[in-house]
Write a structure and sequence with these properties.
It is built from three helices and four strands; from the N terminus they run E-E-H-H-E-E-H. The protein is α+β, with helices and mostly antiparallel strands. Strand 1 and strand 2 form a beta hairpin.
Amino acid sequence: MEFQDKVLKCVDCGADFIFTAGEQLFFHDKQFKNEPKRCKACKAKRVAVLGAPPASGGPSYAKVETRTTCSQCGKETTVPFKPTQGRPVFCRECFQQRRTAAVSA
């Protein structure tokens, strides 16, 4: 497939910018359906304000840190999720031990 440079208009600042043949090839290879809407300057400004966009394109969630007690050794620990009732929760050391034991078994 042959691509040629294309002039697009930025939705933020209204300036024209070039959507290069190389960028179009990249978009095609990644199977992106939409052309870019913003020039590089506006895109950089948007990323700086909003933070890096989520890789999946879905909503971003605040990181959850929950204090809990390890089900194996009883040590108080924090985990990066909200524990589900009835399921064991392990501290980092016990989790690593269990994972190592499961791999070698």
